[in-house]
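Proteins fold reproducibly. Next comes an illustrative record:
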Amino acid sequence: MRFYSSIADHYSEIFPFNSAQLAFVQQAFPNLQQQNLLDIGCANGVLASKLAPLCKAITGIDLNRKMLKKAHKEIGFKHPNLELMELDMMHVSAHFGVYAFSGILCFGNTLVHLTSVGQIRNFLSNCKAVLKKDGKLLLQILNYDRILDEKIDQLPLIENEALRFHRTYQQQANDKLIQFKTTLQLKGEALSMENEIPLYPLRQKELEALLLEVGFTSLRFYSDFKQHAFSSGSYALVVEAV
């Protein structure tokens, strides 16, 4: 996927490790050392590498080959119970089989890269199939209720000593999808990298209905990884589904 290949070399600077994600996973799995986890959309593999010493085993998958090469180079061979592989998120059931994992993580707004309700339903059904009995699915996307209802057209600027990362949304009146556009500017260089990708703006109630439809029975919705209550004004939507 060209969108992520172009920023792969700068991904860690744009999106540094979020310790709240690690704490959230640890809270979700009190007996983490006994858990076999799957990290879908693992990107540079940093979260998976942090979890590797703490759990029984973790597999990280991503569709972007350049991102995975960077992950392999930086952290991929340092943990014997960590495996990183190139795999389409729609193929997890076919590849791993049923009851393969006790937990699945899908963070970083990965889910909404699937561009139809049918695709999202099939993905969630795949997740349910590969989870063991009482296994947990942990999801995180942006709160698209807020984005759609308030007609938000840009996300907060990401800026540090090395770069500026601009993110905007373009909503089309007759199109369910929204266009996510980014511009990466490296400070001290004239070059900027622009990208665009369609996303499906999944509402909380829509996601809730799909999770229940594919067989999850216990759902918790939060506004962040610190488990604050979800509301219409929340920046993000975090889900724990069993």
In short: The first strand starts at residue 36 and ends at 40.
